[in-house]
Amino acid sequence: MRAFVLAAGIGTRLRPLTTDIPKPMVSILDRPALYYTLSNLLKYGFDSACVNVHYRSEVIIDYFKNNEIGINLKFSHEKKLLGTAGAIKKNESFFDDTFVVMSGDGLTDINLKKALEFHKRKKSIVTIVLKKINLRFEYGIAVTDRTGQIKSFVEKPLWGDMFNDEVNTGIYILEPKIFDFIPKDEFFDFGKDLFTLLMQKGEKIYGYLMDEYWTDIGNIFEYKKGIFDILDGKVKVDLDMFKSSNGKYISSTAKIDETVKIENPCYIGDNVIIKHGVHIKPYSVISNNAKIDENSLIEKSIVWENARIGKNVKLTNTIVGSNILVENQITLFDSIIMEERTV
Protein backbone atom coordinates (compact mmCIF):
# COMPACT_ATOMS: atom_id res chain seq x y z
CA MET A 1 0.00 0.00 0.00
CA ARG A 2 1.33 3.40 -0.99
CA ALA A 3 0.63 7.00 -0.03
CA PHE A 4 1.50 10.48 -1.17
CA VAL A 5 2.29 13.06 1.51
CA LEU A 6 2.09 16.75 0.66
CA ALA A 7 4.99 18.54 2.36
CA ALA A 8 5.96 21.34 -0.04
CA GLY A 9 4.11 24.19 1.66
CA ILE A 10 5.95 27.34 2.71
CA GLY A 11 3.87 27.84 5.86
CA THR A 12 3.34 31.59 5.63
CA ARG A 13 0.54 31.58 8.22
CA LEU A 14 2.79 29.79 10.72
CA ARG A 15 5.57 32.35 10.67
CA PRO A 16 7.79 32.98 12.51
CA LEU A 17 7.79 29.24 13.38
CA THR A 18 8.53 28.48 9.73
CA THR A 19 11.16 31.15 9.09
CA ASP A 20 13.93 28.53 8.98
CA ILE A 21 12.03 25.26 8.70
CA PRO A 22 9.23 23.98 6.45
CA LYS A 23 5.76 23.71 7.95
CA PRO A 24 5.73 19.88 8.20
CA MET A 25 8.81 20.10 10.44
CA VAL A 26 7.40 22.30 13.21
CA SER A 27 7.90 20.64 16.56
CA ILE A 28 5.02 18.80 18.18
CA LEU A 29 6.26 17.29 21.43
CA ASP A 30 9.80 16.76 20.13
CA ARG A 31 8.76 15.32 16.79
CA PRO A 32 7.97 17.07 13.53
CA ALA A 33 4.35 17.16 12.41
CA LEU A 34 5.26 15.01 9.41
CA TYR A 35 6.39 12.21 11.75
CA TYR A 36 2.84 11.74 13.05
CA THR A 37 1.41 11.55 9.53
CA LEU A 38 3.90 8.87 8.50
CA SER A 39 3.39 6.94 11.74
CA ASN A 40 -0.35 6.82 11.17
CA LEU A 41 0.16 5.53 7.63
CA LEU A 42 2.46 2.79 8.92
CA LYS A 43 -0.08 1.84 11.57
CA TYR A 44 -2.59 0.97 8.85
CA GLY A 45 -0.27 -1.05 6.65
CA PHE A 46 1.24 1.50 4.29
CA ASP A 47 4.79 0.42 3.53
CA SER A 48 5.83 3.19 1.10
CA ALA A 49 5.18 6.90 0.76
CA CYS A 50 6.21 9.58 -1.72
CA VAL A 51 6.79 12.96 -0.04
CA ASN A 52 6.94 16.12 -2.14
CA VAL A 53 9.27 18.85 -0.88
CA HIS A 54 10.05 22.42 -1.87
CA TYR A 55 10.78 25.06 0.80
CA ARG A 56 13.84 24.15 2.90
CA SER A 57 13.59 20.63 1.53
CA GLU A 58 16.96 19.66 3.03
CA VAL A 59 15.52 19.98 6.54
CA ILE A 60 12.94 17.28 5.80
CA ILE A 61 15.30 15.01 3.90
CA ASP A 62 18.09 15.24 6.49
CA TYR A 63 15.72 14.38 9.33
CA PHE A 64 14.21 11.34 7.65
CA LYS A 65 17.23 10.03 5.71
CA ASN A 66 18.02 7.68 8.58
CA ASN A 67 14.41 6.63 8.64
CA GLU A 68 13.47 4.80 11.79
CA ILE A 69 9.73 5.00 11.28
CA GLY A 70 9.61 1.80 9.24
CA ILE A 71 8.05 3.19 6.09
CA ASN A 72 9.98 3.45 2.81
CA LEU A 73 10.23 7.07 1.68
CA LYS A 74 10.71 8.60 -1.74
CA PHE A 75 11.24 12.37 -1.94
CA SER A 76 9.97 14.35 -4.91
CA HIS A 77 11.63 17.77 -5.10
CA GLU A 78 9.63 20.53 -6.77
CA LYS A 79 11.75 23.45 -7.94
CA LYS A 80 8.51 25.04 -9.12
CA LEU A 81 5.32 24.27 -7.23
CA LEU A 82 2.87 22.17 -9.25
CA GLY A 83 -0.18 22.30 -6.99
CA THR A 84 -1.56 19.40 -4.97
CA ALA A 85 -2.74 17.37 -7.97
CA GLY A 86 0.17 18.38 -10.20
CA ALA A 87 2.64 17.14 -7.59
CA ILE A 88 1.08 13.69 -7.69
CA LYS A 89 0.93 13.64 -11.49
CA LYS A 90 4.71 14.12 -11.48
CA ASN A 91 4.96 10.82 -9.58
CA GLU A 92 2.33 8.89 -11.52
CA SER A 93 4.59 5.87 -12.01
CA PHE A 94 4.79 5.41 -8.22
CA PHE A 95 1.13 4.39 -8.04
CA ASP A 96 -0.51 1.39 -9.69
CA ASP A 97 -3.39 0.78 -7.27
CA THR A 98 -5.65 2.60 -4.83
CA PHE A 99 -3.61 5.09 -2.80
CA VAL A 100 -4.02 7.69 -0.08
CA VAL A 101 -3.01 11.35 -0.05
CA MET A 102 -2.37 13.07 3.27
CA SER A 103 -1.02 16.42 4.38
CA GLY A 104 2.34 16.49 6.11
CA ASP A 105 1.20 19.33 8.34
CA GLY A 106 -2.10 17.91 9.54
CA LEU A 107 -2.55 16.19 12.88
CA THR A 108 -4.90 13.23 12.86
CA ASP A 109 -5.43 9.72 14.17
CA ILE A 110 -7.86 8.78 11.39
CA ASN A 111 -8.69 5.09 11.02
CA LEU A 112 -7.54 4.64 7.42
CA LYS A 113 -8.85 1.08 7.31
CA LYS A 114 -12.43 2.28 7.77
CA ALA A 115 -11.96 5.04 5.19
CA LEU A 116 -10.55 2.60 2.63
CA GLU A 117 -13.44 0.19 3.21
CA PHE A 118 -15.90 3.01 2.50
CA HIS A 119 -14.02 3.94 -0.68
CA LYS A 120 -14.04 0.36 -1.98
CA ARG A 121 -17.71 -0.10 -1.09
CA LYS A 122 -18.70 3.01 -3.05
CA LYS A 123 -16.43 2.11 -5.98
CA SER A 124 -15.42 5.75 -6.09
CA ILE A 125 -12.69 7.31 -8.22
CA VAL A 126 -12.09 9.81 -5.39
CA THR A 127 -13.10 9.78 -1.75
CA ILE A 128 -12.62 13.02 0.16
CA VAL A 129 -12.33 12.62 3.91
CA LEU A 130 -14.57 15.16 5.64
CA LYS A 131 -14.80 16.41 9.20
CA LYS A 132 -17.49 18.38 10.99
CA ILE A 133 -15.89 21.57 12.30
CA ASN A 134 -16.99 25.01 13.41
CA LEU A 135 -14.13 27.15 12.09
CA ARG A 136 -14.87 26.28 8.50
CA PHE A 137 -14.10 29.42 6.50
CA GLU A 138 -10.42 28.44 6.04
CA TYR A 139 -11.25 25.03 4.56
CA GLY A 140 -12.98 23.68 1.51
CA ILE A 141 -16.57 22.64 2.20
CA ALA A 142 -18.54 19.82 0.58
CA VAL A 143 -22.23 19.00 0.23
CA THR A 144 -23.13 15.31 0.01
CA ASP A 145 -26.33 13.39 -0.65
CA ARG A 146 -27.64 10.54 1.50
CA THR A 147 -25.25 8.06 -0.10
CA GLY A 148 -22.23 10.23 0.61
CA GLN A 149 -21.74 11.33 -2.99
CA ILE A 150 -20.44 14.88 -3.25
CA LYS A 151 -22.78 17.18 -5.18
CA SER A 152 -20.93 20.47 -4.78
CA PHE A 153 -17.63 21.68 -3.44
CA VAL A 154 -16.30 25.15 -2.59
CA GLU A 155 -12.59 25.57 -1.92
CA LYS A 156 -11.87 27.98 0.99
CA PRO A 157 -15.19 29.84 0.73
CA LEU A 158 -16.15 33.30 1.93
CA TRP A 159 -18.59 33.73 4.79
CA GLY A 160 -21.40 34.30 2.30
CA ASP A 161 -20.79 30.87 0.80
CA MET A 162 -21.40 29.00 4.07
CA PHE A 163 -23.98 26.24 3.73
CA ASN A 164 -22.41 23.22 5.39
CA ASP A 165 -20.16 22.22 8.28
CA GLU A 166 -18.36 19.29 6.65
CA VAL A 167 -14.90 20.45 5.62
CA ASN A 168 -12.24 18.94 3.41
CA THR A 169 -9.42 17.57 5.59
CA GLY A 170 -7.00 17.23 2.69
CA ILE A 171 -7.04 13.46 3.10
CA TYR A 172 -7.99 11.70 -0.15
CA ILE A 173 -8.36 8.12 -1.33
CA LEU A 174 -7.75 7.90 -5.06
CA GLU A 175 -7.78 5.50 -7.96
CA PRO A 176 -4.98 5.72 -10.57
CA LYS A 177 -7.65 6.68 -13.13
CA ILE A 178 -7.42 10.26 -11.83
CA PHE A 179 -4.14 10.68 -13.67
CA ASP A 180 -6.09 10.75 -16.94
CA PHE A 181 -7.59 14.08 -15.85
CA ILE A 182 -4.44 15.84 -14.58
CA PRO A 183 -2.23 17.67 -17.09
CA LYS A 184 1.50 16.99 -17.01
CA ASP A 185 3.98 19.63 -15.81
CA GLU A 186 1.24 22.16 -15.05
CA PHE A 187 0.00 23.70 -11.83
CA PHE A 188 -3.16 21.77 -10.94
CA ASP A 189 -4.98 21.75 -7.64
CA PHE A 190 -7.35 19.18 -6.15
CA GLY A 191 -9.99 21.52 -4.77
CA LYS A 192 -9.90 24.24 -7.42
CA ASP A 193 -9.28 22.14 -10.51
CA LEU A 194 -9.49 18.35 -10.34
CA PHE A 195 -12.66 17.81 -8.30
CA THR A 196 -14.62 20.31 -10.36
CA LEU A 197 -13.42 18.69 -13.59
CA LEU A 198 -14.30 15.19 -12.39
CA MET A 199 -17.85 16.22 -11.51
CA GLN A 200 -18.21 17.92 -14.89
CA LYS A 201 -17.14 14.66 -16.54
CA GLY A 202 -19.76 12.72 -14.57
CA GLU A 203 -17.31 10.91 -12.31
CA LYS A 204 -18.59 10.06 -8.84
CA ILE A 205 -16.78 11.59 -5.89
CA TYR A 206 -17.77 10.51 -2.40
CA GLY A 207 -17.26 12.13 0.97
CA TYR A 208 -16.30 10.02 3.97
CA LEU A 209 -17.17 11.65 7.28
CA MET A 210 -14.48 10.72 9.79
CA ASP A 211 -15.14 10.34 13.52
CA GLU A 212 -11.55 10.57 14.70
CA TYR A 213 -9.40 13.59 15.52
CA TRP A 214 -8.18 16.02 12.88
CA THR A 215 -6.79 19.53 12.85
CA ASP A 216 -4.78 21.57 10.39
CA ILE A 217 -1.78 23.14 12.13
CA GLY A 218 -1.53 25.83 9.45
CA ASN A 219 -1.66 28.75 11.88
CA ILE A 220 -0.39 29.48 15.39
CA PHE A 221 -3.78 28.92 17.04
CA GLU A 222 -4.26 25.49 15.46
CA TYR A 223 -0.62 24.56 16.16
CA LYS A 224 -1.09 25.18 19.87
CA LYS A 225 -4.52 23.53 19.83
CA GLY A 226 -3.06 20.35 18.34
CA ILE A 227 -0.41 20.12 21.05
CA PHE A 228 -2.85 20.83 23.86
CA ASP A 229 -5.29 18.27 22.46
CA ILE A 230 -2.54 15.62 22.60
CA LEU A 231 -1.91 16.53 26.24
CA ASP A 232 -5.64 16.20 26.90
CA GLY A 233 -5.66 12.72 25.34
CA LYS A 234 -7.93 13.76 22.46
CA VAL A 235 -5.44 12.48 19.85
CA LYS A 236 -4.17 8.90 19.78
CA VAL A 237 -0.41 9.24 19.32
CA ASP A 238 2.47 7.24 20.78
CA LEU A 239 4.78 9.49 22.79
CA ASP A 240 7.10 6.61 23.79
CA MET A 241 7.32 7.83 27.33
CA PHE A 242 5.69 7.27 30.67
CA LYS A 243 2.36 8.96 31.24
CA SER A 244 1.27 9.23 34.86
CA SER A 245 -2.34 8.79 35.83
CA ASN A 246 -2.78 12.54 36.26
CA GLY A 247 -1.83 13.50 32.72
CA LYS A 248 1.87 14.31 33.00
CA TYR A 249 4.15 13.16 30.17
CA ILE A 250 7.62 13.16 31.75
CA SER A 251 10.73 11.48 30.35
CA SER A 252 12.66 9.23 32.71
CA THR A 253 15.86 11.07 31.71
CA ALA A 254 14.62 14.49 32.86
CA LYS A 255 16.38 15.91 35.92
CA ILE A 256 13.83 17.75 38.03
CA ASP A 257 14.59 19.30 41.42
CA GLU A 258 12.35 18.01 44.21
CA THR A 259 11.09 21.55 44.89
CA VAL A 260 9.64 21.93 41.37
CA LYS A 261 5.87 22.15 41.17
CA ILE A 262 4.37 20.51 38.09
CA GLU A 263 0.69 20.71 37.19
CA ASN A 264 -0.97 18.52 34.63
CA PRO A 265 -1.31 18.22 31.73
CA CYS A 266 2.24 18.87 30.62
CA TYR A 267 5.13 17.42 28.64
CA ILE A 268 8.78 17.27 29.75
CA GLY A 269 11.18 15.69 27.26
CA ASP A 270 14.50 13.86 27.35
CA ASN A 271 17.45 15.29 29.30
CA VAL A 272 15.51 18.34 30.43
CA ILE A 273 16.93 20.09 33.50
CA ILE A 274 14.52 21.95 35.79
CA LYS A 275 16.06 23.65 38.80
CA HIS A 276 14.95 24.73 42.27
CA GLY A 277 11.65 26.54 42.76
CA VAL A 278 10.37 26.32 39.19
CA HIS A 279 6.62 26.17 38.64
CA ILE A 280 5.35 24.34 35.54
CA LYS A 281 1.69 25.22 35.08
CA PRO A 282 -0.87 23.31 32.92
CA TYR A 283 -0.42 23.02 29.15
CA SER A 284 3.32 23.62 29.25
CA VAL A 285 5.78 21.83 26.98
CA ILE A 286 9.49 21.60 27.79
CA SER A 287 11.25 19.88 24.90
CA ASN A 288 14.37 17.74 24.78
CA ASN A 289 17.57 19.15 26.32
CA ALA A 290 15.92 22.38 27.46
CA LYS A 291 16.96 23.91 30.78
CA ILE A 292 14.83 25.94 33.20
CA ASP A 293 16.77 27.86 35.84
CA GLU A 294 15.71 28.70 39.39
CA ASN A 295 12.35 30.16 40.38
CA SER A 296 10.97 30.55 36.86
CA LEU A 297 7.32 30.08 35.93
CA ILE A 298 6.15 28.43 32.71
CA GLU A 299 2.45 28.75 31.95
CA LYS A 300 0.68 27.43 28.84
CA SER A 301 3.92 27.86 26.92
CA ILE A 302 5.91 25.74 24.47
CA VAL A 303 9.70 25.59 24.84
CA TRP A 304 11.51 23.94 21.93
CA GLU A 305 14.62 21.79 22.22
CA ASN A 306 17.94 23.09 23.54
CA ALA A 307 16.40 26.33 24.78
CA ARG A 308 17.50 27.79 28.10
CA ILE A 309 15.19 29.76 30.36
CA GLY A 310 17.03 31.90 32.93
CA LYS A 311 16.29 32.61 36.58
CA ASN A 312 13.06 34.29 37.68
CA VAL A 313 11.64 34.22 34.16
CA LYS A 314 7.88 34.25 33.57
CA LEU A 315 6.53 32.77 30.34
CA THR A 316 2.79 32.91 29.66
CA ASN A 317 1.23 31.71 26.40
CA THR A 318 4.64 31.95 24.74
CA ILE A 319 6.61 29.87 22.24
CA VAL A 320 10.39 29.80 22.66
CA GLY A 321 12.32 28.35 19.71
CA SER A 322 15.26 25.98 19.62
CA ASN A 323 18.61 27.20 21.01
CA ILE A 324 17.10 30.41 22.42
CA LEU A 325 18.42 31.88 25.66
CA VAL A 326 15.85 33.82 27.68
CA GLU A 327 17.88 35.83 30.17
CA ASN A 328 17.18 36.24 33.87
CA GLN A 329 14.25 38.34 35.11
CA ILE A 330 12.47 38.42 31.72
CA THR A 331 8.66 38.32 31.50
CA LEU A 332 7.07 37.26 28.21
CA PHE A 333 3.35 37.18 27.50
CA ASP A 334 1.72 36.12 24.23
CA SER A 335 5.13 36.07 22.54
CA ILE A 336 6.95 34.00 19.92
CA ILE A 337 10.75 34.01 20.10
CA MET A 338 12.33 32.03 17.27
CA GLU A 339 15.58 33.72 16.25
CA GLU A 340 18.82 32.17 17.49
CA ARG A 341 19.72 34.99 19.84
CA THR A 342 19.56 36.05 23.44
CA VAL A 343 16.23 37.53 24.56
Describe the fold and architecture.
A seven-stranded mixed sheet has the order 5-4-1-6-11-8-12, with helices on both faces. A hairpin with a 5-residue loop joins strand 9 and strand 10. 17% of the residues lie in helices and 29% in strands. By secondary structure, the chain is of the alpha/beta class. The longest helix has 12 residues, at 220-231.
Sheet having the most strands: 7 strands, mixed
The low-confidence runs, each spanning 5 or more residues with pLDDT under 50, are 157-163
Helicity range of the residues? 10-25%
User: Number of DSSP helices?
Assistant: 6
Cα shape:
elongated
Taking all Cα atoms into account, the compactness measure Rg is 21 Å
SSE layout and pairings?
Blueprint: E1 2-6, E2 27-28, E3 31-32, H1 33-43, E4 48-53, H2 57-64, E5 72-77, H3 83-89, E6 99-103, E7 106-108, H4 112-122, E8 126-132, E9 141-144, E10 150-154, E11 166-174, H5 190-200, E12 205-209, E13 214-216, H6 220-231, E14 248-250, E15 255-256, E16 261-262, E17 266-268, E18 273-274, E19 279-280, E20 284-286, E21 291-292, E22 297-299, E23 302-303, E24 308-309, E25 314-316, E26 319-320, E27 325-326, E28 331-333, E29 336-337
List keywords for this structure.
alpha/beta; 7-stranded mixed sheet; 343 residues; 17% helix; 6-stranded parallel sheet; single chain
